[in-house]
Backbone:
């Protein structure tokens, strides 16, 4: 009896190949979603066409023949025009690739066309990977690899089934037979019939093997500095998706607040050092004009030094004794060229060489360009303080040169209006900067509520002054700006600081996560007496005494995020830190960790074995009595008898457990008989010997016969074994020269 | 199934079938497979439709079987003017007894050869429906049992369709099997040429088994054991024909039962008291092919048979065989 495995017919293989090709096209073109290249319309067209033609495979036959003739020249012309108009090579190449995929998806494909789909798809995936290095890319690459392997298998199976020299898909405008009779439900049903767990397991194991080998190669191969080799980035016109820029209009920060994606992730060697309410300061804006704060040219000139190209930045914080806390920042791409910082620092180290300008006096570090990939930097020795000393500004103030802008830049009417408000706040008293700020904040909170959809009253004059004088609700930018105007009117130098406030502790990745929704603006007021800029946040919740203690584990635990989004974030963080930013140092660290784990595991195993041996020795060394010996002997005998009984009578036990003699497919006797029959079949022995024929008959009876007619199964299996040996030895004798 | 085939019964069955097989082989040369399948059909208690060209031995086969058994044989030549009463019989008025007396038709035999069955009108063809299903004829409200065992051997020419009436599906479903004889091998044909036989009436065969033996064999076939996985295998095949889009309709429940019964009969013919999956796979085509009609139109009947055969083979190939 020959066991037949179900197989897909040639038509079904064609259908499967068509489906996989369509799926691969979609997988490839959907990279546009996160690639930030202007090809959305084209992606929509390809998606619709690929889905339609995949589901209804007779559709390509309706494409008029001249379309196939004109397709290639038109695509080339489109590419040339695109390149000429946009002058951006990579997006044009991406669109060209998509057009080719579109053409391949709406025409019947030969083998080489199927392979082209893989190559074209791979190009898109690689470009997306180089440009974004995102977690989506990682997931897509995995799916693409598995899909492409399945597609290649289908191509091979079709080729094998068709035989050499025969290939369908040569005539583009006539639907082949498989397309005419295509039935997806039937294919699904047939796939389920054909699917065999062994094949699926083998496929999964092969895929896992490919991934494992890739991972090993990734870990083992020497690392190169690739940032200067990846030319693809330079072929794209760079643009940031959002940004903290030199100029902030009211509403800019609020727009970012609507976005809950991760903006910044921070590793810290001592998490107790995290402030309860950290301010991740990025930039200060000192010049105000009609609702817009910007970095004034004076401050830019005075505060920032020349551009440097280095991996190390020395800060103005004084070195302290002992091991300093190390903060590793991972700033998301496209956010800003200004790096978030907690305060003054001793040392900042980039992972790669960067072009930057450091304004030490204003505490701002600016890269030359907004990075399009994640930027990682490590900071040591942060000085965490609410006030920030600024000797430069202090000296400038003393010289009354007012290099740092403190003027209001509002009309006389607005000035008068602000004067009235300041009088209301101070009550005519002469206050220090800190006292004035405290009173002004109390006054602002008393008169304004918080809202992400503020209303600025209509009327003449400066919009910020109008809002300040009103009782309308507002957001952080309005509060910060209003405080700046009030402070300046009262004679205190002040400016707006922007960045992020707060964040959550990710319990899965053990890192601090700051989201775009944590974007914030606050005020810095200069206190001449202290010679420092005071951080004044009109929206800060007054701290309790306990919270002012920054080193609070409980506070961190309270902020710990263990939601599903935190899990996803941790995965993304893993991707960026362990894979994207896997450099030589990480490689050494990983290998060292592997070595440590191996050593510690081996040590634990040795200890456990030694402990067990010692225990046995100690147990054996105990004084033996007749009763103890008898107990041990009885136990050994019992265990041995149980094992022997189970092995000897497993079939009978199974029969006892089987309900009322109901035939079951997993009857062990039938299963054993099936195995023996398979072994005899596998030898391809011609059933010549009477004994072998008899044994096969008995085995068939055990497998398919009524149980009441069975002979002793054990004896039959023994005979089967002997018959198999006899046949094999006979065959060896015959084959021997 | 609680009642199993006893060893003694099995031995008797083997001997009877061997005698029958050997006897038929003396006249049917080189067609051992066809002979085996005819025996399967006989043991299963079914009716047989033989489709082939004229002159390949269809009638001889039927005659050989009938002569090998101690059974009554009759032949009906189906023509377009044949009436149902010509087949089943008719009630005529008997002047002597002053009442209608039923005059039995040729269907009252054990083996009935319905030659060129598709040449009769559908009305006459339908006269066979009851007798094939229930082994009885009802005339004027009175039921008359035909012979027991009862087997219809129908023949038809698949090529010449001029002036024929294709058998309706209900009629086709009543045939257990459809077989093709095919041309004999050259050596066998040479042997046939050497013989001096003159028509099938000249066939001199002695009965080797009795009607009682046939009835015992038929009863024994029902006791042949069918293991659960084999039943599931049959079920999957039948189910697959119902979901196959190439067919207008799948196999009927009667088709599934026929496959099981025929598999049991085949096991008995091969000397086993249990069914192997190969019994099923070997019989799928002769049992199911004539019960299935293609959803699409084909150029001729031969093309349709080829397409149905290919689809059935594909279905069988797609279902895992119990091992």
Residues:
């Amino acid at each position: 009896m020959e066991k037949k495995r179900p197989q897909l017919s040639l038509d079904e293989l064609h259908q499967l190949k068509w489906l996989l090709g369509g799926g691969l096209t979609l997988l490839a073109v959907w990279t546009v979603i996160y690639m930030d290249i202007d090809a959305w319309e084209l992606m929509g067209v390809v998606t619709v066409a690929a889905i339609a033609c995949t589901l209804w495979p007779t559709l390509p036959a309706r494409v008029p023949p001249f379309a196939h003739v004109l397709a290639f020249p038109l695509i080339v012309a489109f590419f040339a025009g695109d390149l000429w108009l946009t002058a951006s090579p990579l997006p044009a190449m991406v669109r060209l690739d998509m057009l080719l995929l579109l053409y391949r998806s709406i025409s019947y494909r030969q083998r080489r066309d199927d392979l082209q789909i893989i190559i074209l798809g791979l190009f898109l995936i690689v470009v997306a990977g180089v440009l974004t290095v995102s977690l989506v890319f990682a997931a897509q690459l995995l799916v693409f690899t598995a899909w492409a392997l399945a597609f290649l298998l289908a191509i091979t199976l079709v080729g094998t089934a068709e035989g050499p020299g025969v290939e369908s898909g040569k005539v583009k405008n006539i639907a082949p037979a498989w397309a005419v009779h295509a039935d997806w439900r039937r294919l699904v049903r047939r796939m389920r019939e054909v699917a065999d767990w062994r094949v699926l397991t083998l496929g999964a194991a092969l895929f896992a093997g490919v991934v494992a080998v890739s991972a090993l190669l990734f870990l083992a191969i020497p690392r190169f500095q690739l940032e200067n080799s990846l030319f693809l980035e330079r072929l794209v016109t760079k643009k940031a998706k959002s940004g903290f820029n030199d100029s902030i209009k009211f509403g800019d920060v609020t727009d970012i607040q609507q976005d809950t994606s991760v903006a910044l992730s921070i590793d810290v060697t001592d998490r107790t050092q995290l402030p309860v309410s950290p301010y991740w300061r990025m930039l200060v804006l000192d010049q105000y004009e009609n609702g817009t704060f910007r970095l004034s040219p004076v401050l830019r000139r005075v505060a920032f030094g020349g551009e440097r190209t280095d991996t190390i930045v020395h800060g103005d914080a004084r070195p302290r004794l002992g091991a300093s806390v190390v903060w590793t920042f991972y700033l998301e791409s496209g956010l800003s060229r200004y790096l978030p910082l907690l305060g003054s620092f001793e040392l900042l180290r980039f992972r790669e060489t960067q072009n930057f300008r450091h304004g030490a006096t204003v505490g701002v570090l600016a890269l030359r360009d907004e990075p399009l990939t994640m930027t990682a930097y490590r900071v040591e020795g942060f000085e965490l303080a609410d006030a920030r000393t600024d000797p430069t500004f202090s000296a400038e103030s003393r010289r009354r040169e007012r290099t740092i802008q403190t003027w209001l830049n509002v009309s006389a009417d607005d000035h008068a209006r602000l004067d009235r408000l300041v009088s209301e706040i101070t009550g005519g008293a002469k206050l220090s900067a800190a006292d004035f700020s405290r009173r002004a904040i109390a006054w602002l909170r008393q008169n304004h509520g918080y809202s992400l959809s503020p209303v600025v009253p209509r009327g003449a004059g400066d919009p910020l002054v109008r809002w300040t004088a009103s009782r309308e609700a507002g957001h952080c930018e309005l509060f910060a700006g209003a405080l700046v105007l009030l402070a300046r009117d009262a004679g205190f130098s002040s400016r707006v600081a922007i960045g992020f406030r707060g964040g959550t502790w990710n319990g899965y990745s053990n890192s601090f996560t700051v989201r775009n929704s944590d974007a914030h603006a606050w005020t810095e007021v200069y206190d001449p007496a202290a010679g420092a800029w005071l951080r004044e946040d009109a929206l800060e919740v007054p701290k309790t005494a306990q919270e002012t203690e920054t080193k609070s584990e409980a506070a961190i635990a309270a902020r710990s995020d263990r939601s599903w989004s935190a899990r996803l974030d941790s995965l993304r963080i893993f991707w960026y830190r362990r894979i994207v930013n896997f450099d030589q140092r990480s490689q050494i660290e990983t290998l060292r960790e592997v070595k440590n784990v191996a050593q510690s595991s081996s040590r634990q195993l040795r200890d456990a074995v030694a402990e067990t041996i010692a225990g046995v020795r100690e147990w054996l060394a105990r004084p033996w009595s007749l009763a103890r010996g008898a107990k041990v002997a009885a136990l050994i005998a019992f265990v041995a008898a149980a094992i022997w009984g189970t092995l000897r009578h497993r079939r009978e036990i199974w029969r006892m457990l089987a309900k009322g003699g109901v035939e079951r497919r997993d009857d062990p006797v039938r299963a054993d008989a099936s195995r023996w029959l398979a072994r005899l079949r596998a030898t391809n022995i011609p059933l010549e010997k009477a004994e072998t024929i008899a044994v096969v008959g008995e085995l068939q009876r055990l497998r398919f016969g009524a149980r009441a007619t069975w002979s002793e199964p054990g004896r039959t299996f023994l005979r089967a074994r002997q018959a198999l040996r006899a046949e094999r030895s006979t065959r060896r004798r015959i084959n021997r020269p | 199934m609680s009642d199993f085939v006893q060893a003694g019964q099995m031995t008797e069955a083997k001997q009877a079938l061997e005698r029958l097989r050997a006897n038929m082989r003396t006249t049917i040369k080189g067609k051992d497979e066809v002979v085996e399948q005819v025996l399967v059909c006989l043991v299963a208690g079914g009716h047989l439709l033989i489709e082939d060209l004229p002159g390949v031995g269809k009638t001889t086969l039927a005659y050989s079987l009938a002569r090998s058994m101690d059974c009554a044989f009759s032949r009906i030549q189906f023509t377009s003017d044949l009436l149902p009463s010509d087949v089943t019989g008719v009630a005529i008025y008997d002047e002597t007894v002053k009442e209608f007396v039923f005059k039995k038709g040729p269907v009252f035999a054990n083996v009935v050869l319905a030659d060129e069955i598709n040449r009769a009108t559908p009305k006459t063809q339908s006269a066979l429906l009851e007798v094939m299903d229930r082994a009885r004829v009802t005339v004027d409200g009175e039921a008359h049992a035909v012979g027991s065992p009862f087997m219809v051997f129908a023949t038809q020419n698949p090529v010449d369709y001029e002036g024929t009436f294709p058998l309706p599906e209900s009629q086709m479903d009543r045939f257990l099997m459809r077989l093709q004889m095919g041309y004999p091998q050259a050596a066998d044909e040479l042997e046939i040429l050497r013989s001096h036989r003159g028509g099938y009436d000249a066939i001199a065969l002695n009965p080797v088994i009795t009607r009682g033996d046939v009835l015992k064999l038929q009863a024994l076939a029902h006791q042949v054991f069918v293991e659960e996985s084999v039943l599931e295998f049959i079920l999957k095949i039948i189910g697959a024909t119902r979901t196959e889009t190439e067919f207008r309709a799948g196999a009927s429940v009667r088709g599934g039962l026929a496959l099981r019964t025929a598999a049991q009969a085949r096991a008995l013919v091969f000397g086993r008291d249990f069914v192997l999956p190969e019994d099923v796979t070997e019989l799928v085509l002769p049992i199911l092919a004539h019960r299935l009609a293609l959803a699409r139109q084909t150029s001729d009947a031969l093309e349709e048979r080829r397409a149905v055969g290919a689809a059935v083979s594909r279905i069988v190939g797609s279902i895992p065989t119990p091992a």
